[in-house]
Amino acid sequence: MKAAPIASRIVKALAILTLVLIASIAVGLTVGAQRIDPASLFSDSFSRTLFFRLRLPRVLMGLLIGASLGVTGGALQALFRNPLADPYTLGVSGGGAVGASIAIALGWGARVFGIPLVFATSFVGAMLAVSLVRTIARTGGVVLPGALLLSGVAVNLLSAAGVLTIQYLTDPTSALRILRWMIGSLDVVGLEPIRRMLLVLAPAWLALLLFSRQLNLLAIDEDTAATLGVNIRRCEMTVHALCALIVGVTVSAGGAIGFVGLIVPHAVRLMFGEDLRIVLPGSLLLGAAFLILADALARIVLPSTELPVGAVTGLLGGPAFLWLLRRRQQYSAM
Amino acid sequence: MSFEAHNLDYAYAGGPLAVRNVSLTVPPGSMTAVIGANGSGKSTLIRVLAGLLRPSAGSILLEGVLLDDWQPRLRARQIAYVPQSTATAFPFQVMDLVLSGRTPHTLRFRFESAHDAEKAMEALETVGAAHLAGRGFTSLSGGERQMVILARALAQEPRFLLLDEPSSSLDLKHRADLIRTLTRLRDTKHLSVIMITHDLQLTGSFDQLLALRCGEVAAAGTPDEVLRDHLLREVYGDPNVRSQRMGDQTLVWVDL
Predict the structure, then answer these.
(1) 3-state DSSP helix/strand/coil % of chain B, to nearest 5
(2) Does A332 contact B at CB distance below 8 Å?
């Protein structure tokens, strides 16, 4: 039983997951209240507008957010050596939501150098959350798994209270905007917002993927990772910052969509093994596919209206979280 | 190729000194055992030597260069560390885990080669754990995990191997196997071993013993010099410790 060399395992896994993503994009583009026939794109200007202004941007939004949540989930699980970690459970999304609410309350449109101000504020919120959770959970060289998740819960509660307070204090229009945004949706008009997000996200994804190998060593054990040459402190800080940036941008665009970052890396692990050099890029691809499909489901599951996509991922992810928690208890005490 | 520590102090944040004025020279191709009662600073010392903790005073020289001044990757080719236990939450495959020990020998953005895979398999064979290659790490027993992590450290091909109580979860036979393996690696590959242990019986074939008491060196020397009643009584703080020479072994026990 000789294991296939890692390089060919990666190629195989990523090829399969790319096909899955392409298939899900196809489904996402077809499904909806208004079925769009590919042939009609050439003949019918209404179909064309619908497709390019609404359907395609929405699918691309699902791709960006799903990929972001998937890859950050995989990275955070490795960094904290905790299979239950993800941007949502650790409160990173919550922190980002507070930052985003502040920006929304102050006025959506502000931009600095073409980058929306809201990206910056939710990045700061997410960064504060992840640093806080880490500081609390870490004693000496050990990250306590229970303390990690509990401080994540606390940060989430704090964030929810923060968002409520901001909503209460701000004017009714902004309050309504925050409410609409918080429910979480991939609704977007036109491709311009996608381009702006991609400008920030693509480099951040790439930078995070470059840490795959170090994260792989960290996922095994922190001390031996250090003696194998990983600069723990630098790796930790960089991964924190990258995750906060990615999550901040996605939260400010699509609200706090839960559990994608939790389920997706586990699915990749179940299919292709534990190596983070597969899990991270794999979660990027599968996260995108998963959210596109979840959104397609959200659009068609009710006959008259559509569900928020966050509800669909929550309904799928919540039970998965509980199942993982139960499974984990069987072989290691929390 | 030398590894020396001079007058090391270490204190955890806000605590007293856990390691106090410890000096140690590890010649190439030698075996050093660190002994002492629980809480005497053995693990702290070995973590300081591994570069995991920065000494609050004193210096560690590897090949005449301060340990801190070594590039982490290059240092990792010299020094490997095996912790007391490894509790990874993820079911890594044993082979992948051992292969990750090759990291310091592969370029950062390259994958492990067939040569690395051979080295990893060889390391597993050396510790007698080749049959575990395809297993999930989390499904192994404590002793099996210990052997796998040791194999991972050997795949690292270090010149100095730091082991924190590697024998603690091993049965009688595997403890003996472990010492035989380390002795063989010392003699054939010139590997130097620094190992914490409570099994004084196992230290007969070691080149030097370092006994710690309250973070300080209480005794140092060859096994013959250190494994003596009066020294051990002081090291362990128990007046009933006894030792007796039998052939080329020293038996140590405590009268109950």
Answers:
(1) 40, 30, 35
(2) yes
Give the domain ranges of chain B: 1-78+158-173+197-256
Q: Which CATH architecture has domain B1-78+158-173+197-256?
A: 3-Layer(aba) Sandwich (3.40)
Model pLDDT for residues A148-186, shown as the tens digit of each residue: 888 998 999 999 999 999 989 988 888 888 887 877 778
Taken in order of first residue, the domains within chain A and their CATH numbers are 6-327 (1.10.3470.10)
In this complex, the residue of A3, A5, A227 whose CB is nearest that of residue B52 is A227
User: How far apart are the C-alpha atoms of B88 and A225, rounded to whole Å?
Assistant: 12
Q: What is the 3-state secondary structure (H, E, C) of A265-318?
A: HHHHHHHHCCCHHHHHHHHHHHHHHHHHHHHHHHHHCCCCCCCCHHHHHHHHHH
Q: How many CA atoms lie within 13 A of B27 on its CB side?
A: 7
Give the whole-angstrom CA distance, residue B145 versus residue B132.
Answer: 10
A1, A221, A328: residue with CB nearest B86: A221
Alpha-carbon distances of B33 from A4, B118, B172, rounded to whole Å: 39, 30, 18
The torsion region of residue A66 among left (phi > 0), alpha (psi -120 to 50) and beta comes to: alpha
What tokens were used for B11? 């204190």
Which residues on adjacent β-strands are paired with residue B250? B245
Q: Is the dihedral of CA B164, B169, B172, B173 positive or negative?
A: negative
Answer whether B88 sits within 8 Å of A5, measured CB to CB.
no
Task: Output the six-digit token pair for B137.
Answer: 């790490």
Mean pLDDT within B170-176: 88
Indicate the pairing of strand B208-213 with strand B192-196. Answer: unpaired
Q: How far is B168 from chain A (nearest CA, A)?
A: 19
Distance CA B77, CA B104 (A): 6
| B15-46 pLDDT, tens digit each | 899 999 999 999 999 999 999 999 899 999 99
